[in-house]
Amino acid sequence: GRFVSDKGLPDLLQALVLLRQSGTRPGLTVIGAGPEESAWRQLSQDLDLESQVQFLGVRRDAELAAELNRHRVLVVPSRWNETFGIVALEGMACGCLVIGSEGGGLKEAIGSAGMTYPNGDVAALANCLLRALTDDEIVQHCLRASAEHLARHNPTLIAVRYLDEFQRMKKEVSHVRAC
Predict the structure, then answer these.
(1) Quick one: which of 92, 101, 33 has its CA closest to 68?
(2) What integer pLDDT is reported at residue 131 of this predicted model?
(3) What is the DSSP code (8-state) at residue 115?
(4) 97-101/73-76 β-pairing
(5) Do the strands 53-57 and 97-101 form a parallel or antiparallel pair, or are they unpaired?
(6) Closest C-alpha to 2, from 39, 41, 36
């Protein structure tokens, strides 16, 4: 993703600190680039997380899919209300359990096939991470739900829904003009 403050990586780093305090030390792979990168690398060092956090830089297409396939969990810790969050669907398609902030359309993108928490709530994010890392029942439930969830977001089906909506709106506008 883009390394900008609204994307919430500092919240995820703080959640790792909370997990460490409870004895859990998961690894974190950060993919992307942007203006906040040096600050986030410094924060990772300041929080003594450099042994857990790896910054990979930008990955696209097959290289991104291969990297996502290597992971169990994808976290989208946005501080702002994402419009939709297609990255959540990409993560699910690669077999990841998705954890994301619930503001905006990201909650819809994740649906019941992942976990959400209130934007900016580091303790809630840490709790979601702990559950994703330790509760196989939750993980299996989310992974089973992801196939159906992804099917509902098939690009062809979405395009048909848009066309249907445009047709409905066109009829509505035509009716208004006729009156």
Answers:
(1) 92
(2) 97
(3) E
(4) parallel
(5) unpaired
(6) 36
Closest by Cα among 130, 175, 106, 164 to 18: 130
The helix/strand/coil state of 163 is helix
Summarize pLDDT for 28-55 with one digit per residue, the tens.
999 999 999 999 999 999 999 999 999 9
Rounded distance, CA 128 to CA 98, Å?
A: 10
Asked if 100 and 120 touch (Cβ cutoff 8 Å), the reply is no
Helices and strands (H, E) in the chain, number of each type: 8, 5
- Residue from 90, 81, 91, 97 nearest 137 by CA: 97
**Model-level pTM?**
0.88
Q: Which residues of 158-169 are buried (b: 16+ CB within 10 A; e: fewer)?
A: eeeeeeeeeeee
Q: Which helix (H) or strand (E) holds 92?
A: helix 86-93
Handedness of CA 137, 82, 158, 33 (dihedral sign): negative
